[in-house]
Every structure is written in C-alpha cells, then in structure tokens.
Amino acid sequence: MASSSPSSSCSSMEKINFRTKVLSRHLNHDPTGDKPFLQCSPCLSYTPPELSEPNSFFDVKLMRKLMDGHNIEDRDWLYNLIVQSKLFNPQEKGGKIFVLPDYNQSMEQQREMTMKRIEYLLDNGVFQGWLTRKGPEAELRKFAFLDVVGIFDHSLAIKIGVHFFLWGGAIQFFGTKRHHDKWLKDTEDYVVKGCFSMTELGHGSNVRGIETITTYDSNTREFIINTPCESAQKYWIGGAANHATHTIVFSQLNINGRNQGVHAFIAQIRDANGNICPNIRIADCGHKIGLNGVDNGRLWFDNVRIPRENLLNSVADVSPDGQYLSAIKDPDQRFAAFLAPLTSGRVTIAVSAIYQSKIGLAIAIRYSLTRRAFSVTPSGPEVLLLDYPSHQRRLLPLLAKTYAMSFGANYLKTLYVKRAPALIKTIHIVSSGFKAALTWHNMRTLQECREACGGQGMKTENRVGHLKGEYDVQSTFEGDNNVLMQQVSKALLAEYVAAKKRNKPFEGLGLEHMNKPSPVIPSQLTSTVMRSIDFEHDMLCLRERDLLNRFASEISQRQAQGESKEHAFVMSYQLAEDLGRAFSDRAIFQTFVDAETTVTDATLKSILGLLRSMYALVTLEEDSAFLRYGYLSVDNAAAVRKEVAKLCRELRPHALSLVSSFGIPDAFLSPIAFNWLETNSWSSAQR
Amino acid sequence: MAPVTPTSSETELILVEEKSSARIWVLNRPKQLNALNFPMVSRLLDLFLETEKDLSVKLIVLKGIGRAFCAGGDVANVVRDISQGNWRLGAHFFRTEFTLNYLIATYSKPQVSILNGIVMGGGAGVSIHGRFRVATENSVFAMPETALGLFPDIGASYFLSKLPGFLGEYVGLTGARLDGAEMLATGLATHFVPAQRISSLEEALYKANSSDLGIISSIISEFSQVPTLKEKSFYHRLTIINKSFSRRTVEDIISTLEREAAGSNDDWILSTIQSLKKASPTSLKISLRSIREGRLQGVGKCLVREYRMVCHVMRGEMSKDFFEGCRAILLDKDRNPKWQPSKLELVSDKMVDRYFSKVDEDDWEDLELPPRSNLPHHAIAKL
C-alpha cells in the first residue's frame, strides 16, 4: 500500500478541499440525503462485499463440504446451539449478533463461564458417546464438535479437550476393562472431572525425564506417589486449579529399588464438594497471555496413596505382591507403545490451528473488501484494500496455504480415526510434522491478518489480534514444534537407513519418490509448467530427497569422526529443520492433490488448481533452501515470483467466496467483517 | 389456505388507498380468508416496487378485510396446476411470492402490518419481514405447513430461527397456534394494540406523515397495551421447549418429549407429540434442517434455499406428501393424510439432502433475488 505521507500526485489544496467535504458531510449527515453524493465518497458508506463482489464462480456450499470434510449437519446444529444461548455472550454490533466470550472478565469469572458453557453443552447432549461410542464415525463426530467449540473459544475447547482427550483418552488407551467400566461413563457425564498431570516444572517435552516418583507398598497394596523436589511439581495442569476431581499422574515407577520408567496412575485430587484431598497441594499458574478460561494449576503429591488398581495397566502391571510384569521388556519400546495413542492431542491442535487461520482470514479479507485507503488519482475514490497488489500478496498466499493445510488436517483426522498398529509410525510422524507446520502457519497468518486489519485488529471484539495470544501456546503444548520437527527428521533418517541397509525400496510416508531417479527441472519455467501438478510435485520432492541425502551423509560423517549418534543429531540441527519442513510441505501438497482429484465439479476443480499452484509456488518462493541448494536457478526463482503475483490477481475475484466456503457463521466472525461503520457509529456508542 | 373458488376481478383483490403520505393496501378476498393467489402476489410485488421509487410515500400499511389478515398462499390452486402436469406454474408462483417476501424484508420504507385476525403461512411472509407487526386480541398465528406435507417457506426459516431459544423449531414443526400475546412475547409481533383502537391508530399514523422509525414506533406504542399471557400458554414452557427442540434430529426431539411426558399427564407435551406424529415425516425432517440452516443465514439465502426445497416438493420425486396433505386437509377434508414415507426412520439423510440440492433439470435456475441497494446487514450472511 502507499505510504501514509501525502502523495505528490495530490496537491495539498485538493486535500484540504476533500477534508472539508468529508467534514461537512459528517456534520450535515442526512441518511435519506442524495445517494449519488454519498456514492462518490466511499469512506462514508459501507457496502457489504456480497453486493460489491462478483457472484461466486463456484458452488460455495460444495466447497464448504470439501473444506469441513465431515459432519456438516452436526456442526451446524452445534453452531445453532451456541448462538441460541445467553451463556455464549451474544452481543449486537452493527445490527448483527456476535458470540464471543467476555475476555474483559477476570480470570476467575472466565473460568466459571467456561464451566457453565460445558454444562450447557452437556445438558444438550453434545458429549453423548464421546467415550462410550467407538468407531471412526463416532470419533469424527467428536472432532467436528470440537472444531465448532474451538471456533467459539479456545479455552472452552481446551477444557473439553483435557477432560475427554487427555484424561478420558488416557483411561481408554492406557487403561484396561476395569478402568473403562469404572470411569468412562462417569467421565462422559462429568460425574468426575479429569485432568492430566504430565508436564513438570523441570520437564516438558522430555517426558522420560520427569521426576515424580511412585513406589509400591505390598502390605497395603497401594502405590505411593511423591513429588520429591520443586522441579517435580506438576505444571500447567489444565483443570487442576479449580475444577478437576481426578487426575492422571505420570510418574517414574520404582519397584523393589528398580526404576521401570514412566507409568500413568489415577489419583483423586478433590472430593465431590471440591475440597482438596489430603496430601495433595494445589497452586494456581496465574494469569496467562491466553486461555484464561482454563484453570491451569500446579500439583504436589506428598506420598499420596492410591489403590493398586489405579495403575493404568495396558502395557505393564504390578502384581499384588509387588512383582513388575510387562510383555514388553525393552523400556524404550514400552515407553513408545505407551505414548503412541496420545497423538489425538496433536491431531486436534493441528486441526484447530487451521480453523483459527480461517477465522483470521475470513475477517481480514472481508474487511479488505470494504475498507478503502488512499486514492491513486487526484480526488478520485479511495482504493479498496484488497485491490492493492501488495495487500493481495499479503493475504492470498496465506489463504491458499490455509486451504492446503485444511486438506492436510482432514487427512490427518482420517488417518487418526482409522488407526491400526501398522499405521502408528505414520500417524506419529505425520501428526508431528503437521502439528508444527499448521500451528506455525496459524501464528503467522493471524499476525498478518491483524496487521491487515490495521488498528481495528487491535480490538478484542475483532478477534484476530486476541487469537494470537490465545493460540501462541499451540507451538509449545503436546510437544514443542522444534522438537517435533527434529523427530520427523530423525524418523525420516531411520527410514533412509533401513531402506539403504536392506537395499529395499522406500515405502510409506509418501517417500516412494525416493525410489525414482531425481526429477529433472526445466531450465526455463513457463506459466503452464509452473501450474502443473507434476512440476510442483517434482520441486517439493527434489528438495525433500536432497535434504534427506544431505542429512544422512552429514550424520554418518559425524559418526565416522567418532561423534555419538545423539551428538551428531544435535549438531546437524540446520539440515534437520529444513528437512522437517520439506517433508511437511510435500506431504501437505500431496493431500491437496488427493482432494483435488476427488472433485468432479469443473468450476471447483479449476479454483482448487489455482490455490494448489499458489500453495506450491509460494512455498518455493519462501524457503531459501530452493536457492541455497540450487533446486531453483536464479532465473527460475524470478519466474516463480512473477507467477505468484499473477496468481494473486487471478485469485482476487474469488477472495470472498473462498472465505465464505470456510463455513464459519457470521456470528462467529467479528464486527469489522461486516458493517463496521454502523458498529462504530455514535448512536451505537449510546446504547 | 382456502378452497378454490372463482375470484372476482384482479384489481379488487388488493384495495389501494392513499392517506397523506401513507399507502394502505388491503387484502380483499375475505371468503378465502385473504389467501394469496398468484394475481394478488404479483399485484403486491408491483405495488411494492412502484412505491419504493415514489419519494412522496413515507409509510405502507398492510391489512386484511374480514376475520383474517391472510390465511396463507393459495396452495390448493398451486396443487391443481401441478396435478394438471405443470409444476413449473407452481414454481412461478413461489418464485414471485418469495421475491415479494425478499422485497418486504429489505424494503426502504417502513411497513406497518395490522394483524387483526388469522396470520398463517404466506400471510406471515408479507407481514413478519416488515418493520412493524401489530397484533390484537383477534390475532391467530401459525405455520401449519408440516401438516400439509410442505414446510415453513416464505422466508420462515429466517424469522422462525431468530425467535428466542428453540421456539422457532417448535412453532415451525408443530404448527402451534399463537395468540396476540404470544406473538408479542416471541417477537413475531412488535406491538399489541386492542382491536377497537386500531382505527384510531391508523388515523394517528396517517396524521404523523413521517417515515421516521422512532416516531412511528412511539405512535404505535401510545395505542399499545401489555397483554397477559394465558395460563396455558406454551410461553411458560420455554425450558422444555428448549430442551427438546434443540435436539439434533426430529427423532431425538420426539424421544426427549416422550421422556418428559413419561410419568406425567402433561396435556401440553402430549398434544405437542401428537401434532408431530400427525405431520408428514418428510416435512418434519426438511423443515428442521431448513430452520437450522436458517439460523446461520440471511433472509436472501433462506429464500433461495426454500425455493430449491419447494421445487423438489412440487416435483414429488422423493415424496408426494404435499399433494396428499392438500387432498386430506384442503380438498377432501377427511383430515387423514397417508404420508409416504410413512415413518421418520424411513426418511434417510440422503433423501433430505436432495431437497437442498439444485433441481436437476435443464432450464431450472436458482431463485435470483433482485439486487437491493439498501440491504440491511442483518439480512446478509455469507454461508
């Protein structure tokens, strides 16, 4: 956009005249006044983008179905339920109703509101079958509801997520029948309120290093959980500060003086009246930059005794007389088997990150279709923000990426609900890579959207700015993004080593392209080439393949020089980072192509083609690895850049329909997405 | 919804009066309870279109002659057209009627509808979308379409879904009748004025000679009264209405009501269940879906969707309940329709989906609404 200093094309006299006109119009504002006059002063009127933008070129409803992917009607039902209740703080702004928590309430008030909203959803049967019904269908329904809840408020989604996915999930996956029978139904009905004590002050992503320690007393047949030092206090435990009655405790298990590694136990922390149980100490984590509707707490266990049956014993058990029993002898494997099912957290985080980007983009793009700034001709009408190529370049590539990652998120969900032992490795790697890629993308998108909304982005009611604080934590919880990306690279290396050692082709994770000869990139790129799936796929594969080769050789070189494998990994962090990103980008691209090929509607297909090319080309433009390692020549990099600008122009007319296709009801967006003039009028301020 | 009889000449079906800057349009088909036939709908459309351009007109007053404001669209007529082999004639009727509804919902001049009598179906479509709706002790409001094998159309999925809580689902699915007090309580009416004061109210409005919403509202308020809700009014049952009609499916709604009814002899619940069981299963399912979608949409999108639905209803591909309903209620009057599919569980989600899809015929097109320069933002939704 133009700079804010007076442009030379517009004389200062003209400017003064213009200001006088504007001011006198403000002073003599007559709503029934002559229309033509109002029309030539666009800063004084609001035109809904639905009127000013061309009709949708494709079927928005069809696109929404593709985007949301599943349980459309269930979603709409829950949106209905939310907008219909006073508990969700409906506010009228500019003639429309918006639902949004009152973030100006104190932390304590926000926490109580979160709980009340959960009770309302519970009363209306939203949680029915969340833990007692099995199968992909039930799980997808649950995911759809969590998506919708998260579009309303992050705290609400997290509080529900902790109770069902972490506490409930731990019982489902780590527990056996006796735990299922005892806890699942009561959890679904909120008879017990669960939390999940894994993270400690001293240990987060490195779960194996936690210091809480549990021993067994065969006389009373009880486990004794203890917090031996301050760094072992459980930290950030969602639900612990105010509401939870029970918790899963992760702890080292020490049997007969021998440490058997990390295990999970059930401990009660409050009675039914909310009083804290003996030998439990709880403190608050205090006010946070987001998620203040979640009561994060800190926990200390002072030799808390729990019955033997409270060990979640799917992987290992302790006999009444105190013998440690496990079918898996290797503690490493035991630990992996143990944590594998917990990927649901990464799945829901990745998915919700994309929904937040959708909210941000829907708001920023709708605003950019109604807000004008600067004229390009003297005293001519000011220009719509999104008509500036620079503004298009800021928002539309992020829009295309959001589309791509939305397909990635849908793929991840289906992968997760179809999980089988053979898929565990894939789920782990894909969920790690996608969680990092999608949450980073979300933070970047929200920041850009905030800036694109200018000062209006600062207002909490307009959501975009506030969401940054709310969602920042996503790059940390359930595994720090950097650590996750390193795990992706490590896993890819393991695949590489296995394939080379056994002289077998690569299989799975989309790595089959490694079996083929290295793709050849044309020396001169034309528009047609750049928009072909083949070229885009080749580029992304070329980078992944080369980085994987480089990473493998750097590690083996270091090992040859006598470094340990672990040390070699630590030192090769640059390639590891690049490789993790390369894998995620390529895998996301693949899910886009897969989704695109299922579409039969011609108009939808053509618009998806534009978005897919935008996603691929902007990825080529942004990652310096393409130039650093010469996958793109300098000339080709310039051609790609030009093509991105061209794609911006071509996507511009579809911007409104593309954000409408996100299927987020108006009430969940914000006042600047609609009539911000009326929202901010004096008469509105008087109400 | 009245029996078909030959009508008097078209111009007299709507009486037009001028009082200062107000235009008074009177629905004049009292024997048929002012049911809207095609000539009336298209005449009203013309009147609204012409008058919008007339700068001297500041206020529209719409009322009916006789004991009804308007008992609905003349669907019996439509059914006759269709049974003679041309559902496109029916489509033309609905297209015109829905365009009229849209015009009213986005009209630039205030409209006062005097609802001193029956307001049903199409009658609601020409009044509720307008700015002021005056109920009296004679008002009877209902959306009885599910008993006819149809669904609440004329943009009802918009205004019903905006009622407090889940009243819209209750009113739309059961066809419950509302009196004037209930209309005011739910917000379907903006004012309640005793019938004997209506003529003085009208005089005051004409004298005021104003299009200012605040002035008009305060004039109507001067004649208004706060009515008392009957002891048996459903409005005292909001908790159970919200609890049951918020459910995701019609089956869930009925089973929730049945659970509530179990052990108690609550007449209101029993009759509510009764009316749901008497209604067309297909109608119930598509109506619920329509109202649910309506809650997230603007009035234009609602009408476009309802037009798709009504075309599917008329084509009778999935169900012919509309014809059966009209036969049983309006023509043969045996009040014993044989619905097909006969049970809720026989109406699959796939069948319901079909009602919301485009009609697969070459020259069929979605309802195209006229562009409106003064589109109120509440009328727009992106979905």
From TrEMBL, chain A:
**Protein name in UniProt:** Acyl-coenzyme A oxidase
Which InterPro entries does the record cross-reference, listed alphabetically? ACOX_C_alpha1, Acyl-CoA_Oxase/DH_mid-dom, Acyl-CoA_Oxase/DH_mid-dom_sf, Acyl-CoA_oxidase, Acyl-CoA_oxidase_C, AcylCo_DH-like_C, AcylCoA_DH/oxidase_NM_dom_sf
Where the record annotates domain Acyl-CoA oxidase C-alpha1, the positions are 342-493
**Keywords in UniProt for this one?**
FAD, Flavoprotein, Oxidoreductase
Q: Which Pfam families match?
A: ACOX (PF01756), ACOX_C_alpha1 (PF22924), Acyl-CoA_dh_M (PF02770)
| Acyl-CoA oxidase/dehydrogenase middle domain span | 195-304
Q: Which residues form the Acyl-CoA oxidase C-terminal domain?
A: 545-669
Q: Does the keyword DNA damage apply?
A: no
* Cofactor needs: FAD
Per the UniProt record, the source organism is: Coffea arabica
Q: Which family does it belong to?
A: Belongs to the acyl-CoA oxidase family.
UniProtKB/TrEMBL annotation, chain B:
Identify the keywords attached in UniProt to this record, alphabetized.
Hydrolase
The protein's matches in CDD domains, at most eight in alphabetical order, are given as: crotonase-like
> InterPro entries from the entry?
ClpP/crotonase-like_dom_sf, ECH_dom, HIBYL-CoA-H
The Enoyl-CoA hydratase/isomerase domain is annotated at 23-356
Q: Which Pfam families match?
A: ECH_2
Query: Which GO biological process entries does UniProt record here?
Result: L-valine catabolic process
Q: In which pathway does it act?
A: Amino-acid degradation; L-valine degradation
What GO molecular functions are on record for this protein? 3-hydroxyisobutyryl-CoA hydrolase activity
Tell me its EC number(s), please.
3.1.2.4
What is this enzyme's catalytic activity, as reactions? 3-hydroxy-2-methylpropanoyl-CoA + H2O = 3-hydroxy-2-methylpropanoate + CoA + H(+)
- Enzyme category, top tier: hydrolase
Question: What PANTHER family does UniProt report for this protein, alphabetically?
Answer: 3-HYDROXYISOBUTYRYL-COA HYDROLASE, MITOCHONDRIAL, 3-HYDROXYISOBUTYRYL-COA HYDROLASE-RELATED
Chain's role: Hydrolyzes 3-hydroxyisobutyryl-CoA (HIBYL-CoA), a saline catabolite. Has high activity toward isobutyryl-CoA. Could be an isobutyryl-CoA dehydrogenase that functions in valine catabolism.
Family, per the entry? Answer: Belongs to the enoyl-CoA hydratase/isomerase family.
Tell me the protein's name.
Answer: 3-hydroxyisobutyryl-CoA hydrolase
Species source reads Coffea arabica
